[in-house]
Amino acid sequence: MTAGVEMMTPNSKGKDSKDNNALTVGANGNKDQAKPSEFEIKLKRARMTAAWFGEHGYFSSLMSVITIYTLYQSDIRLAATGKEADEGFMIVASIIFFIFLFEIFLQSFYKDGYCYIPSWAAEPGESLTDTWWRRMQVGSFYFWLDWIATLTLIFDVRKLFYTYFVFSSLLLLSSAKLDSS
Questions:
Q1: Whole-angstrom distance, CA of residue 48 vs CA of residue 19
Q2: Which ranges of the chain does DSSP label H, i.e. alpha helix?
Q3: Is this model's pTM higher than 0.85 or not?
Q4: How does DSSP assign 69-90, residue by residue?
């Protein structure tokens, strides 16, 4: 589990437990809050399922292997393969790019505080400078670290997208010229 980020798990106690009655009991122990809606219950179950999936040993191991591969894939490509293998490496890099995006969205869904979005309203007694400073603090350190690491893959994936889109554009232009002749 990431330090400083609270996570929902099936074994959590209190507000994140499997018992749906935990949402109906107020801070003073009275049942002064309304029962959760069906949507809230389904959302809670979905978050718990996402937490189980995201923190599962197999998924963590897969992400570790993919991360290590990503760190060394360009060295492996240059040292052990020829020019003809570049397209294969670009395809694998694009698949890894989307797996990393999936992991970021998954963690944003189930980890409280991972993708923190502050309230836009000014707090009582807060200066204008403090309000804007608080509003700019979006996401945790690990959220931004994951985004920066994922975005660095664009340099590998960019070649594939450029090749595909330029080639398809040239085919469209050449077919348009043939049709107009």
A1: 12
A2: 38-55, 57-80, 86-110, 128-135, 141-151, 154-180
A3: no
A4: HHHHHHHHHHHH--GGGHHHHH
